[in-house]
Design a protein that fits this description.
The protein is about 40% helix and about 15% strand. The chain is an alpha+beta fold and about 200 residues long.
Length: about 200
């Protein structure tokens, strides 16, 4: 059975998409970011939790605060990317459940335990982070997701105790020599088991 979306869209989102390591100087507009969010917000999460929160790092001042918190291999590309997004899990997502899951008024009560709530927020926000990367690609931009950073430092500098940073994504048009060679992938038989 073939996929429903055309091969060009498949290539744009997956086959030809790579993690970008350099970016052009072309800016990423607010309209592009709004369009990305307005698409990816529809991706499913458990009980429509929608715990992903995004901090857009645009200013030179904010970039200078972020740079020392990045691992050595990620620092230069983060400083030079047109836009950087800090993707975080909102550990108080349950406060939004009356709005997001209105057909079950007691949904908020399911998440009274902070540690269980943090686990659920991390899982579902990470799922949304995957949607976000696909949305960046759908906008014709390249994404450079990274987990090599000082998470405690990023939380202290850009977030609060109720938000846990998950990844940082550089966003923009690819620059010169943006791609490393494609790494191998597991085959269907290596990755999928039928029981």
């Amino acid at each position: 059975m073939s996929l429903v979306i055309d091969p060009a869209a498949q290539d744009l989102l997956f086959r030809e998409a790579h993690t970008a390591n350099t970016f052009s100087t072309e800016p990423v507009t607010e309209e592009q970011v709004q369009a990305i969010y307005d698409l990816v917000k529809y991706g499913p999460t458990s009980m429509n939790q929608s715990p992903l929160r995004v901090v857009l790092v645009r200013s030179a001042e904010a970039r200078q605060r972020l740079a020392p918190l990045m691992s050595d291999g990620n620092r230069d590309k983060t400083v030079s990317a047109p836009l950087v997004a800090i993707l975080a899990a909102d550990n108080e997502f349950h406060e939004e459940l009356p709005q997001l899951f209105p057909h079950l008024p007691q949904a908020k009560d399911f998440f009274g335990d902070r540690s269980a709530r943090e686990r659920s927020a991390a899982l579902n926000a990470t799922l949304q982070a995957g949607y976000f990367i696909i949305g960046v690609r759908a906008a014709g931009l390249a994404a450079g997701p990274m987990t090599g950073f000082d998470a405690a430092g990023v939380q202290k500098e850009f977030l609060d105790d109720d938000h846990t940073p998950l990844m940082i994504v550089n966003i923009g048009k690819p620059g010169e020599n943006a791609w490393f060679p494609r790494s191998p992938r597991l085959t269907f038989d290596e990755a999928v088991t039928t029981v």
